[in-house]
Amino acid sequence: MATVLYVTANPKPESESVCLRMGREFLRTYELTNPLDEIVELDLYRDPIPLLDFDVFSGWSKLNEGSPLTLEERKKLGRISELVEQFIHADKYIFVTPMWNFGLPPMFKAYIDLVCMQGKTYQYTAAGPVGMLLNKKAVHIQARGQIYSQGPAQAMEYADSYVRLVLGLMGITDVQSIIAEGTSDPQRFSQILQQGIQLAKQQAVQFAQS
Q: Which CATH number fits the domain that encloses residue 27?
């Protein structure tokens, strides 16, 4: 039995979000294909995700010095520890995001800043950084208003490429991408949505069986 971490980063209701609808259909198909796996859902816009702020850096410094922490520092560092351990112990990851301003929602970046932690998910060696999370799989499900997979806008795609880059840093190199593009076109919206959902279902079967 594997543990699957399902991470969403969109404040909209599922009914109003292409990526969340694709993600939910992916997850439903996955559960039907592999019902014994444990699914852990993390909503980055509803669950507490600390920012790397003054309290966090101050708390880390105090831990190194052996000094007492404030209540707020203990609370934030405790939550960060929970999130990092949850991330480390997952076997598979499903990330669901929209593309915003050529990149990712801020809460997703905040989450990555927490779990991409030296000494926990990657480490520096004489040869450079080495990932510590090996033999794991991930899928990134994303919706985009325009076309970024080809053409002149391809150079402005900093979303899926960033996910692959940072996962690779942590040792997660088996990454699939399920992308729905051009959703801002009202004449093609329904077609793009249905194609995205069907692709998500197809990929979910393979992801469950691997």
A: 3.40.50.360
Q: What three-state secondary structure class fits 88?
A: helix
- For 100, the domain range is 3-209
Residue 100 in marked binding region:
yes
CA–CA gap between residue 69 and residue 17 (Å, rounded):
40
Q: Residue 101, annotated ligand binder?
A: yes
Confirm or deny that 60 is annotated as ligand binding.
no
Structurally, the chain folds into a number of domains equal to 1
Q: Point out which residues pair with 5 in neighbouring strands.
A: 40, 93
Q: Which residues of 75-89 are buried (b: 16+ CB within 10 A; e: fewer)?
A: ebbebbeebbeebee
pLDDT tens profile 8-64: 999 999 999 999 999 999 999 999 999 999 999 999 999 999 999 999 999 999 999
Residue 144 CA to residue 207 CA, distance in Å, equals 22
Distances, alpha carbon 79 to alpha carbons 72, 73, 131, in Å: 11, 10, 23
102 in a labelled binding site: yes
Q: What is the CA radius of gyration of the chain?
A: 18
